[in-house]
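Q: I'm writing up a methods section and want to include an example of the input and output format. Could you take the sequence below and give the corresponding predicted structure tokens, formatted cleanly so I can copy it straight into the document?
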Amino acid sequence: MRASGQPAGAALRVRWTGRAEPGPASSGIGHRHPADPAVFWSAKAFWWPPEWMARPRGFDMPDAMHWFPIVSGVQAMGDLLNQLGVPPVFGHNYSSEYIKGWASVMPPEGWTDADTTRLAQFIEDIAGDESEP
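A: Here is the clean output for your methods example:
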């Protein structure tokens, strides 16, 4: 819990996954965007609606989006080909969120939101317009 009363990571627009209990089994953590094609794609999308299209949908999932047999599977394959060609915080482009994520789950002693913002700006200045490698 942060000093603001919000849970750590509440301001992030990603879904954090992992175990909350301390110990060896909690050494991994991950996050995903609701419409990340690399995370959710499956050959089953050709024949059955994927779970990620169920309601309520994530922030980057338009309500007007519908599933159609075969067509939606082909479209998802096209999304995979362009997964990094989207703006940060959409699809598979997490380039601007790594710092916020780590700061929300493992902040150094005395770390503040201002420190996170300053570090994120520093990393953005280094990377320029580049996305994930």
